[in-house]
Specification:
- With about 350 residues, this protein is mainly alpha-helical.
- It folds into two domains: about 160 residues, no CATH class; about 170 residues, Lysozyme, CATH 1.10.530.
- The protein is about 65% helix and about 0% strand.
- The protein is built from eleven helices and four strands.
- β3 and β4 form a beta hairpin.
- α1 packs across α3, α6 packs across α9 and α9 packs across α10.
- The longest helix is centred in the middle third of the chain and has 29 residues.
- The termini are far apart.
- The C terminus is likely disordered.
Length: about 350
């Protein structure tokens, strides 16, 4: 097989990886489950299984038909390798983004083997025999079987799997990230923050931002920053006018959270009913860090997990007792004291 064939297959596999993720994200109503720190039980297991297994197979069949139609038969040779490359892209992508602990590796490896096997089988039994790719009116029995398969799909798709394994993987991921970041950045945080609830909030934002901007992406952002195409940097995704390290981003992020927290207390110290609960004060701090209801909702969900796991014995509150009488000092540089 020529190098141009390998190159074309490699490029088509990369395109397939992008397309399958785009189409999947448009299929939430069907039960598509995206890998996420907030993923829950698989509510459409049959849909997700079939989508993950057969979308690569359907893809190589469609590509084969197009190549045959364009009289580019030579590029159909070993086209099943597109599925091999796709599987490799998927696994390497999740590893590069630090999401290994969120993956169900038994399921991932099983799906990879099945995808490659079916792709090779379809290639040998269907694709290489060009005439088999086009419909035959004499094979109406095949259509009947498709109806049966569709019926079974709808039946099994209503089965709900237990969330236990998913929750366990999510818990392990959060534990790993929290302990790792506590080890790296505890000295920065502990020097500035004594309130346990604020600490939990800071670690939660750090875990969330690093999930969406893992190390590899942050390295690319530094390159983009140099050409003026990136506005936030570091593990806590802070705005800056110069290239900074992750440690510096934590320092800036902590300062901003403390500044916003104290500023909120200062702004509303004369408004009796502004904050009747910790929930709304916490939400205001989050929304000042980054806008968006979904962002605030997911951070608060994560804060609940972090507090329950690591700060459950602490009685600190965000709303200090008799907080109106406190002397809240806000510096011009965003650093503040309570």
């Amino acid at each position: 097989m020529s190098w141009d064939t390998y190159t074309l297959h490699f490029g088509l596999a990369l395109l397939q990886f992008i397309l399958i993720n785009i189409i999947g994200k448009q299929s939430y109503s069907k039960g598509y489950m995206e890998l996420s720190i907030f993923m829950k039980a698989d509510e459409a297991p049959m849909f997700n299984f079939i989508y993950r297994i057969f979308s690569p197979v359907v893809y190589i069949i469609i590509i084969s038909v197009i190549l045959y139609a364009l009289s580019m038969d030579i590029y159909v040779n070993s086209i099943y390798l597109i599925s091999v490359y796709y599987v490799a892209f998927r696994l390497l992508f999740n590893l590069a983004l630090g999401r290994a602990k969120l993956l169900d590796w038994n399921k991932e490896l099983l799906c990879a083997v099945i995808i490659i096997f079916i792709s090779y089988f379809i290639y040998r039994k269907l694709i290489v025999v060009r005439s088999y790719l086009f419909p035959d009116m004499q094979t109406i029995g095949n259509e009947l079987w498709l109806i049966i398969i569709f019926f079974l799909y709808e039946l099994f798709n209503n089965i709900k799997l237990s969330p236990r394994d998913t929750e366990k993987r999510k818990s392990k991921y959060i534990d790993y990230k929290f302990l790792s970041y506590q080890h790296k950045y505890k000295s920065i945080i502990e020097d500035k923050v004594t309130n346990a609830k604020l600490k939990a909030l800071i670690y939660s934002i750090m875990i969330y931002e690093s999930f969406n901007r893992p190390k590899l992406i942050r390295m690319l952002e530094v390159l983009l920053f140099k050409v003026g195409h990136s506005k936030t940097l570091g593990i806590m995704q802070v705005k800056t006018d110069r290239i900074i390290s992750d440690n510096k981003s934590v320092e800036i992020g902590v300062n901003k959270i403390l500044y916003d927290y104290n500023n909120i207390l200062k702004e509303y110290e004369n408004k009796e009913d502004m904050y009747k609960s910790e929930y709304w004060l916490e939400r205001e701090i989050i929304e000042r860090y980054n806008k968006g209801n979904q962002y605030a909702n997911e951070i608060q969900d994560l804060v609940g997990i972090v507090r329950a796991s690591y700060f459950s014995n602490n009685e600190d509150t965000l709303l200090p007792k008799d907080w109106k009488k406190q002397n809240v000092v806000i510096s011009n540089e965003g650093q503040c004291t309570i």
